[in-house]
Amino acid sequence: VQLQASGGGLAQAGGSLRLSCAASGRTFSGYVIGWFRQAPEKDREFLAATRLNGWGPFYANAVKGRFTMSKDSTKSTVYLQMDSLKPEDTAVYYCAAGNLIMSSIQYQRSYAYWGKGTQVTVSS
What is the mean pLDDT of each run of 10 residues along the chain (124 residues)? Predict the structure, then answer.
């Protein structure tokens, strides 16, 4: 099982980046894929999640209105469009997958599989 996150990089404040997460190695159609991030010296933070063949996406309040998660269930791939970026969005961004219920999407322990992360740096 592999989750491959990509698309990170350097952006200026107010700019945009689009992350991708491709899942492979098993059937993910009934799985939830979530996005998390971890800034230096901070806890990992939930951002958004969606079930590949069903509900979602749902967003954390911190990114609602600026980040948009989309999915291509035929490719087991999700995307995170990040707009109006701020320096405080600087973090390593992770995607994760799991067979979980909607009420558990914000908890890291709910996800069985994690990608390696991609660095996003936003300059002021």
Answer: 93 98 88 96 97 94 96 94 97 96 96 96 97
β-partners of residue 4 are 22
Inter-CA distances, 37 with 26, 34, 54, 74, 110, Å: 24, 10, 23, 25, 15
- Is the sign of the CA dihedral 103, 118, 65, 55 positive or negative? negative
Q: Which residues, listed in sequence order, are joined to residue 32 by a DSSP beta bridge?
A: 51, 98
Residue 26 is predicted with a pLDDT of 84
Q: Please state, in angstroms and rounded to a whole number, the distance separating the CA atoms of residues 26 and 40.
A: 32
Contact assessment for residue 91 and residue 39, using Cβ atoms and an 8 Å cutoff: yes
Residue 93 and residue 20: Cα distance in Å, rounded?
10
Which residues fall within 8 angstroms of residue 8, CB to CB, at 6 or more apart?
17, 19, 93, 118, 119, 120
Distance CA 27, CA 30 (A): 8
